[in-house]
Amino acid sequence: MDGAIDRIHPGSMHQIIVCTLCRDVPTGARSGEGLCAELRSRLSAQPDVAHGFTVEGVACMAGCARPLAVAFQAPGKAAYLFGSIDAQVDAADLVRFARLYASLPDGWCNSGQRPPRLAGKTLARIPAPGKPADGNQ
Does 9 score more than 80 pLDDT? Predict the structure, then answer.
């Protein structure tokens, strides 16, 4: 499945993208595909959030120094890249962030607004094209 795109719901505007090549540091296992399945399952249990998201696996996002890498993006919104994600422990906070992200008109939030387990795992927050960043973390 490496490089393949798996969608939870066609036509959705928001994307969660998970690296499928990242290896867990202690075990060496690739946990990206399992995290995709877990996120799909958790989102399906929350239809008000799930209808607006796709979950995709991609072969690499160049976050190799902090595996497992997970990104959030949507048209007209800031994009986020998280690293050092624990597929088993962080899934619930990724879904919490999905709910927050969907509610933000421009996708912009500071680290204090993100779920606690993700606040220190933010590798990048990229402003939407044509939208200036406000300088808050």
Answer: no
pTM score, whole prediction: 0.85
Residue 102: the pLDDT is: 92
Phi, psi of 56 (to 5 degrees): -125, 145
| Nearby residues of 17 by Cβ (< 8 Å), 6 or more positions away | 56, 57, 58, 61, 70, 71, 72, 73
Exposed, middle or buried: residue 137 (CB in 10 Å: 0-12, 13-18, 19+)? exposed
What gap in Å lies between CA 72 and CA 98, rounded to an integer?
8
What is the length of the chain? Answer: 137
SS3 95: helix
Distance of CA 43 to the CA centre of its chain: 12
Rounded to whole angstroms, the Cα distance separating 69 from 32 reads: 8
| Of 3, 1, 14, 8, nearest in space to 60 by CA | 3
